[in-house]
Amino acid sequence: MELFRSLAVLVEPPQPETERLVELLELPSVPEAWEYTQLFVEQLYPYSSVYLGAEGMLGGEARDLIAGFWRALGESPPTEPDHLSVLLGLYAHLVELEERAEPGARRDAWRRARTALLWEHLLSWVPFWIAKLERIASPVYRAWAGLTREALVREAERLDLPRELPLALRDAPPLCTPEAGGGEAFLGQILCPLRTGLILTRTDLTEAASALGLGLRAGERRYALRALIGQDPGGVLGWLAERAAASAENARSGPETIAAFWSHQAREASSVLRLAADQASA
């Protein structure tokens, strides 16, 4: 319970208590404000709606889903109910409520709520997200990510998890072809992890530009990706297809059924991107 609360605090900007938690968790250093901003504000947004929503953006139905979970508990949803810090804090709270309840129906109800939160709103995306984080984060946040993954794995082993995929993954749409919705819609879908099984960060776009000898424009990811495709459509789409194929091979984080889902999405997206690349190069 206290571990999850400590992990939750570290997904927020560094504050006075951060140093004490770093010592408690034996992390390599106290994170600097710039490290936090670079990782969580500029690269990997710690919101479930970005990874579980069909738009790949903050808010929407994915945020409404977790807000509904809060209401089912008899609580008013906070302003950002899908922020990872909030989700980890809520999980710690449910563990505490279960432990305090007398054996019987009430304790069983808290355990079911705890299991649902873990399965639907944490395991569904956090291990997938952590796998990306560990490639680009500073040492302190990589260490934090390792502790978070281990904590989630232990919880998964303790609870009787559902066999069905989490709801957001069951309803996941595919990456459509450019012809299906037009170029702008296709561009937006490429940036949607739920459709592609791929998290594209500013670092990835920098790597693509370097690999293909292209100029990377400053600005938000959609603008930068549009500019890259405009310079070399076939090359950029082919690079993305290869990156999605690699993601499909490496999607082993988290429960097997969930890892298989992310792998499948990446594999299917790689095929769509490869076809689009071939058409652009023809």
Model description:
- Helix content is 69%, strand content 0%.
- By secondary structure, the protein is mostly helical.
- The chain has 2 domains: 2-168, TorD-like; 174-281, no CATH class.
Helix content: 55-70%
CATH level-4 homologous superfamily of the largest domain: TorD-like
Largest sheet composition: none
* SS elements, strand count: 0
The chain-level mean pLDDT equals 93
- In CATH, the architecture of the largest domain is Orthogonal Bundle
User: Regions with pLDDT < 50 over 5+ consecutive residues?
Assistant: none
| CATH secondary-structure class of the largest domain | Mainly Alpha
What would the principal axes of the Cα set say about the shape?
globular
Question: Keyphrases for this structure?
Answer:
17 helices; TorD-like; 282 residues
Structure summary:
By secondary structure, the protein is mainly alpha-helical. The protein is built from 17 helices and no strands.
